[in-house]
Specification:
By secondary structure, this protein is α/β, with parallel strands linked by helices. It has 12 helices and 14 strands. The structure holds nicotinamide-adenine-dinucleotide.
Amino acid sequence: MTDSTAQSFQITLLPGDGIGPEIMAVAVNVLKQIGEQEGIKFDFTEAPIGGVAIDTTGVPLPKDTLSICRQSDAVLLASIGGYKWDSLPRSQRPETGLLGLRAGLGLFANLRPATILPQLLEASSLKPEVVEGVDIMVVRELTGGIYFGQPKGIFETEDSDQRGVSTMAYTGKEIDRIGRVAFETAQKRQGRLCSVDKANVLEVSQLWRDRITALSKSYTDVELSHLYVDNAAMQLVRAPKQFDTIVTGNLFGDILSDAAAMLTGSIGMLPSASLGESGPGVYEPVHGSAPDIAGQDKANPLAQVLSAAMMLRYGLDRPATADRIEQAVLSVLDQGYRTGDIMSEGMKVVGCKAMGEALQTALSS
Ligand code: NAD
């Protein structure tokens, strides 16, 4: 977290591939405009990652890119990947650059909001009365749990069979670390935190529940509840409005954050933040590089712009500035502007650039 009185921020921009540069341009214009209005100086440094980095340097995450990111206050990432690099070996694929960035910056906390905007109520596959007003933040542990636990592998057994093994393990420190992020996130929201585990079956989850419960004594302003993951999945689609902030491990978070995001029905609208213990966080849309519409001025830039708002709120301690950007997004939707992915009857279809211009007009009024 940056000093809240600072007026100048170093921001690394990673536009990446596909629609990345188009949507990044919109977010940068919005940041420049709001910076001028509020006396905040953003120093932007652009660096390659993903396919564009493979083409120019031979690797998906050049050392220089990681070092520039480490030196900045926050990293704004667009998207990486595309057909062109799909047949490369895994170690040279664009996605490997993303994993390297997360590991290199020690990003253990992934924040994924799922907010239903009244203007896009019809985009959800659930009934409007079920999703209206939904505003959930899923805090997922990103660098531990079953995706990393040892032992892991596929082993030959003595009776000539095979055995696939993955290990779900968390240390108390890992749980406390993600727990603190979650309690602090809940404090910035409605003050309710639901911890999701499988403590009725898994020892690792019992430790999770014990540590989160112990931690809650330091956050008496946050109301803590617990759910088993199967019940949480059911409640998310049955009555999603009951949730404010959810905290959970890597595997359960992977699944629940996608389910929660899809309550909103529109991938072009969803931002995310990945945070470490100290140092810069990475703020990026949930969607990919959309190679099918790249270079055609059709991309929805709003998830990228909302990622910039998350950067201001969670990385630069500028919640009021983040609010203004989010209000501008609501305003352009109120005025009926829609990119193709969120288009509905009676609305005005616009391209990526025109959506950006509409946002800038909203910000100056
Ligand atoms: P995708 O999210 O790129 O696209 C899925 C669908 O949603 C496509 O039809 C696309 O046109 C549409 N879409 C996505 N974002 C949009 C936007 N902002 N505006 C309008 N429409 C949008 O997922 P995919 O097609 O599975 O993957 C494409 C590439 O992106 C792959 O190389 C994949 O590895 C990569 N990818 C990258 C990230 C990332 O950078 N974090 C995440 C997911 C996928």
